[in-house]
Amino acid sequence: MPTYEYRCSECGYEFEEFQSITAKPIRKCPACGKNKVDRLIGRGAGVIFKGSGFYQTDYRSEGYQQAAKAEAETAKPKSSDTKDKASEKKGSTSKTSEKKTA
Predict the structure, then answer these.
(1) pLDDT tens digits, one per residue of 1-12
(2) Quick count: other Cβ atoms within 10 Å of Cβ 87?
(3) How many other C-beta atoms are found inside a 10 Å radius of the C-beta of residue 21?
């Protein structure tokens, strides 16, 4: 439910009221008692998310999460494999550059 801002045009009293969207606007001023209250156009408030359950992955089943974890583990390259591949790439680029200059 939103919080609405009101101002009395008679006495200038400003106040906020927590109301349902379908509720009728307040007309009677709580300070002076006159029927001169107008609802103001407010700047609104940001959405506040509290607690867990706001991410798509929070709704995944346990089986899906376990399969994703196992897939991630098998997809990780071993540290010795990456060093070997890096040295192979360096060696192949230096050989091609030597052929071009010769």
Answers:
(1) 788 899 999 999
(2) 10
(3) 7
